[in-house]
Amino acid sequence: ITNCKIMKTDRLETRFRHGSAFFAGLALLLLSVPVVRAAAPVEIHAFPNPDFLPAGLVQGANGNFYGTMQQTGPVGYGAVYQVAPNGGITVLIEFGGTNGADPKSRLTIGTDGNSYGVTLSGGANGFGTVVQLAPSGMLTTLIHFNNANGASPFGELVQSTDGNFYGTTQYGGSGNNGTVYGNVWGAATLV
């Protein structure tokens, strides 16, 4: 910026004798900024059936991605799968109903290295489950919802700074309008 004069009055002011010089400098600066073009997405894996309805992915410490999908598996109750960065996909768990069914939410990777998720239905009572998937591939059903403690858990679990997990259900609870629950595994504790 040329021909700039700073004058002291009640307050400090900057005055430009030639405003056009300022705007010319600004235009030159903007023209020198590199243009970043958005890259086209690259397909890593294509699902064979549009009914699988995959939920969002999370990335594990091993670099692989993990997700859930509905309406797949031998009985159509959904699955947990792993996708390697090179596109290889492995189905880790297929839900069978008693361990949960219809996973619609993405997984949460806990600070303990396990993945946690919910199924909208299935379980011992048919009202949904909270599940834990160990890095070894072992699935443990932690909560079987019973309508009194909630029904149809939906949305991903959140791990708080105290190490506990929290989530919500669409239905169940005292007014059958849904619940917020915390993780006392074996029974959902309403919060």
Oligomer: single chain
Order of helices and strands: EEHEEEEEEEEEEEE
Q: Outline, from the CA principal axes?
A: globular
- Quote the beta fraction: 35-45%
Q: Numbering strands along the chain, what is their spatial order in the largest sheet?
A: 3-4-5-6
Structural class: mainly beta
Number of helices: 1
- Summarize the biggest pleated sheet: 4 strands, antiparallel
* Total beta-strand segments: 14
Mean pLDDT over the full residue set: 80
Rg (C-alpha, Å): 26 Å
Question: What is the terminal-to-terminal distance?
Answer: 61 Å
Question: Ranges with pLDDT <50 over ≥5 residues?
Answer: 1-18
Architecture overview:
- The protein has 191 residues and is mainly beta.
- 7% of the residues lie in helices and 37% in strands.
- It has one helix and 14 strands.
- The strands form four sheets. The chain has a four-stranded antiparallel beta sheet, with no helix packed on it. Strands 7-8-9-10 form a four-stranded antiparallel beta sheet, with no helix packed on it. A four-stranded antiparallel beta sheet has the order 11-12-13-14, with no helix packed on it.
- The chain is globular and about 70 Å long.
- Mean pLDDT is 80; it is low at 1-18.
Question: Briefly, what is this?
Answer:
Helices cover 7% and strands 37% of the residues. It has 1 helix and 14 strands; from the N terminus they run E-E-H-E-E-E-E-E-E-E-E-E-E-E-E.
